[in-house]
Specification:
Shape: globular
CATH superfamily: Gcn5-related N-acetyltransferase (GNAT)
Distance between the termini: 24 Å
Number of helices: 5
Length: 179
């Protein structure tokens, strides 16, 4: 079973620990890319190597899978999309993404159906959930345009930099993705 895919314009692939450190650092070193999660942007490239090792271990234990979205034309990594907190009994998972400013609705409409189809058809997951920092309007608009439904807000779900963070919950059931 291959976890790597491609579309007309993109490779959707698992990261390679020894090769993708610089690309992942470039993506995750911008606050605008990670603020919706919320997390701090990376400040040194060694953090990306640690992250690559962590996600490889989580993949090996079938706890999570993260894909890099690489543009075929220039090899630029424009996003990382992953699933985690997989519940194999309930057949659901939480999705997470970090999008560069070069990844918008058009790009997501090309790559996300491939990932969701794989999760649905091959892994038999029937529900994806995504949690964002409340007020992440750009991310919310993308999720809604892709067919995710807003389920509400979880108050004070996380503490981040001394502040209680509310998380908005969006979900997608199998077959609801808008391509």
């Amino acid at each position: 079973m291959s976890w790597n895919f491609e579309t007309e314009h993109f490779f959707i692939r698992l990261p390679v620990s020894d090769e993708d450190g610089a690309a992942l650092f470039k993506l995750l070193s911008k606050n605008s890319t990670v603020a919706h999660i919320p997390r701090l942007p990376m400040t040194v490239e060694a953090q990306a190597l640690d992250e690559l090792r962590r996600i490889a271990m989580r993949f090996e234990t079938r706890e999570a899978a993260f894909w890099l979205i690489e543009r075929k034309s220039d090899g630029d990594v424009i996003a990382r999309i992953g699933i985690q907190y997989i519940n194999w009994m309930m057949l659901n998972a939480q999705m997470q993404w970090e999008l560069s400013d070069r990844c918008g609705l058009e790009e997501l409409q090309e790559v996300l159906p491939v990932i969701v189809n794989y999760l649905s058809q091959d892994l038999h997951l029937h529900r994806l959930e995504m949690r964002l920092r409340a007020g992440s309007d750009g991310q919310s608009k993308l999720l809604t345009a892709l067919g995710f439904s807003c389920e509400g807000t979880l108050p004070s779900q996380q503490e981040f930099e001394g502040e209680d963070i509310d998380l908005d919950v969006y979900s997608l059931l199998t077959g609801e993705l808008k391509a």
